Amino acid sequence: MKSHASLTTSAAIKTCVTLCLFTLLSTGACGKSDKDKGTGGKPPEATPVTTPVTTPAGPIEITIACGSVGHDYDTCKEGAEAWAKKTGHTAKPVGGPTSTTEVLALSQQLLSAGASDIDVLRIDVVWPGILGSFLLDLKAYSKGAEKDHFEAIIANNMFEGKLVGMPWYTDAGLLYYRKDLLEKYNEPVPTTWDQLTKTAKKIQDAERKAGQKDLWGLVFQGKAYEGLTCNALEWIASYGGGNIVEPDGKISIDNPQALAAITMAASWVGDIAPPGVLGYEEEESRGVFQNGNAVFMRNWPYAWALFEGEGSLVKGKVGVVPLPKAEGGRNAATMGGWNLAVSKFSKHPEVAADLVMYLTGFEEQKRRAVKYSYQPTIPRLYEDKDVLAANPFFANLLATFKNTVPRPSTVTGGKYNQVSSAFWNAIHAVLAKEKPAKDSLSELASNLDRLRKGGKW
Ligand code: GLC
């Protein structure tokens, strides 16, 4: 199975992460092997950091932690280099793990050690409550630029009255499908999970019979990490099963709709979804789909540019629609996205904030949307003809983008990662058929209650 190569890559990255952590703590440099088979980011090998020029007048070196999923690294590096050219400063992009859960662990270790190695950090939309105390208030540098962005994201990025992150791009879970296969089998694009399951099975069985032995019906992010929280929240919310923990703090996860949703997802594994899906992050699912080995895929918008890019085996064959809903339920896409923040340990906060403002500004968000299909956080860009020409689905999916389902990170604040990890582990156990769904959800509810301590988050 082709997905195997991607999984091996993932394991290699993980080993690198551990090494990177120490490299970062000691030298401030982090890299990822160039052997990544994806057509996306290629962070450099770790190199020792040069001592930054510290005179205010001279060029300053700003280290920015870029991502490693898809085109994350390339696009971040290009933007940072354009800023360097414009300002005369130097930007040093560094790579990191692909899993947001691992990036969080790494960031927490660096920040709690007071390390000044990284000036600019990428902050997942669910982290302001976790990392906020280590980050600078960007209002001091933004000159009101936050008014250009979606209000909900700015509100999300407030921590104790400080604006701790400038929105860089937003994300929403989407359903990618193979137009050619649906046409071949005369099947409509599914709007319910039930239809998706039946169509996936029909096409998978017929294509396998015809010799396409590696074809699977559906791939998604089933590994025990934050990505599974995003996927499972979509299943549950689409069944009307709530948000795990509600905005008023109530733990709602142990309910019949949530039970129905995860029972459905567990039935996919080994049937229409490969057993290996239990170890898939975004890139493993994308790899399988891009190699032509899946009919449907749940993923974020970044995958679009890669499917349409050179060398893609599915170029011109892919459609994008909202994720299906349960009968009588609703379409639910988890709200994702990333912000840029300045570490309070940065030796050059003003210059670092200038880089943040540049990278999150209109022109740079437009460039990233046109070239790499990153979803802008500036509403005006959804009317931009170049952005729409490169991403036709942005126009059709505006309603999806506006009605995303938030994870319970605001209400659970600093405890969000513990809540999420209890959740993804409980779901993973069900998908892996290690625990009955009913038991897993009721245990989860008790664990969350213990975490909440005294009825308050
Ligand atoms: C994407 C989303 C992010 C989410 C992550 C989960 O990167 O933007 O918000 O936490 O996927 O894997």
What is the general shape?
globular
CA radius of gyration is 21 Å
Strand order of the largest sheet: 8-9-7-10
Work out the helicity level.
Answer: 40-55%
Distance between the termini: 44 Å
CATH architecture of the largest domain: 3-Layer(aba) Sandwich
Give the low-confidence spans. Answer: 1-55
The total strand number stands at 11
Number of helices: 20
What is the structure about, briefly put?
With 457 residues, the protein is an alpha+beta fold. Helix content is 45%, strand content 12%.
Notes on the structure:
This protein has 457 residues and is an alpha+beta fold. The chain folds into 2 domains: 10-171 and 337-397, Periplasmic binding protein-like II (D-Maltodextrin-Binding Protein, domain 2, 3-Layer(aba) Sandwich), CATH 3.40.190.10; 174-332 and 408-455, D-Maltodextrin-Binding Protein, domain 2 (3-Layer(aba) Sandwich), CATH 3.40.190. Helix content is 45%, strand content 12%. It is built from 20 helices and 11 strands. β1, α2 and β2 form a beta-alpha-beta unit. Mean pLDDT is 90; it is low at 1-55. The structure holds alpha-D-glucopyranose. Alpha-D-glucopyranose (GLC) is lined by residues 100, 124-126, 171, 226-227, 230, 282, 300, 336-338.
